[in-house]
């Protein structure tokens, strides 16, 4: 009778092992075996991190093995089990790999195919087509799209401090070089401007091509800040004026979560200037959108505390937009859309599923937790923002490093696409892929053309670009806007999470006492410090960009592409490390050895 050797690998994470009964049956082209209990006498099977082998003898020839069914049945108490993979040695000496990398819960079962990636058109056998269809039907019941209204995640957000120095009482407990430098220099205009390029939220600043009517600033107002003997309009034409507009916050009510403390929001407009030292500095701030006598334009030439409080209001607004839009919406929630669409429309055997699964590893789980407790356009370096020129803005490290990582990912995705799609026609005819893209567009982007996402893909190049967006968003973009939070936001006056007094409506009346009373109280400051510290930490089992320990792909060409991807990323790591040498403010958030594969915190 034919005999097979089955090797079973259990995960090494906590509680991965099981004492439940594990049964296995083989489905071949010529027949199906009975269920076999995988058990060794006087041996504790399926322990955490174990690799166990079993001999399975069948009554008749099964032909080519097409599927392996693994069932878990209760022994005493329900005991979840993490199955990494199975390997099968056939009676003819062939080895077949069956990747799993998933939990089996309760009285559960999984049906596995061998590890070769296959498009739907590659499956000509009825049982494989049926398995593919049933897998997606099951997943579509588990993963359902639902609208998350904006007010659901606008809710992210009692004695006063004595003065700015009083904030050090909590700050010095946890410190690092960048955050200490922020504490010392946060009031300086060039430090204020630098954060729009390389801080937590480096995506809002754009070149100003025309002064907005709602910001009636004149040359006379900012003359003392202009260094080229040009008018403000001429500086705009020369490309030296930049703008950050927090219009998104206009009309939003502040939280009323604390009945003892009123909270306030502003929707400022900040005009910035590239001076002769190539530094970006603020030259005008209006704290609300509609100009008027009670909405003055604050200037560097104003009284010290007038100008300082105006900048603090901008930093607070930047914090809110960063947390709700840049961080939560454009990395966490967008990545979740990709993840859910992937599980709904791509079977585990599909090459795009195998490529993306590492990049949505914890996203759905962490977002579910965030909703319980806390709560784009294609071109991430868009020319429409006017920020693409290295010569014009030489210290925009987010842009420079991001482009290096983007190109490395794009090269990798293009290689993988080329392995499985020999022509544009194959892309267009891959219905599972098209359903995935459509799911993202219809449910994730609500069918809005303005989202910049397509509802179909027609070429290998567009598919590669799309996959680059998915991977970059979940890895590099999230790293850029998440892991610097303690660096830039732990000094409370530099990133106030809440303001306890309304924006000033007149000049010449602001005092240091008024500023301190406007900043968060002691309780909220401590909560904020703990939150940004926790959000800035890597996970204990973090997998960084290019690391694929779960071998969903078994084909040699893809493994070689992965190796080249890692080599390209190492080059980027070296370039960034060399650039950062001797810098007082090093920028390392987009160094690939610090970019997790997926949104995990």
Describe this structure in words.
- The longest helix is centred in the middle third of the chain and has 42 residues.
- It is elongated and about 95 Å long.
- Strands 2, 3, 4, 6 and 9 form a five-stranded antiparallel sheet that branches. Strands 10-11-12-13-14 form a five-stranded antiparallel sheet.
- It has a domain of 112 residues: PLAT/LH2 domain (Lipoxygenase-1), CATH 2.60.60.
- With 601 residues, it is an alpha+beta fold.
- The chain contains 18 helices and 14 strands.
- Helices cover 39% and strands 13% of the residues.
- About 6% of the residues have low confidence.
Question: Which descriptors would you attach to this protein?
Answer:
601 residues; alpha+beta; Lipoxygenase-1; five-stranded antiparallel β-sheet; 18 helices; 14 strands
Compact description:
It is found in: Cytoplasm, Cytosol; Membrane. The chain is an alpha+beta fold and 601 residues long.
Q: Flag low-confidence runs.
A: 148-159, 170-175, 364-384
Q: What spatial form do the alpha-carbon principal axes imply?
A: elongated
Termini gap: 52 Å
Overall SS class: alpha+beta
- Mean pLDDT over all positions: 88
Strand content: 5-15%
Annotation, overall tally of beta strands? 14
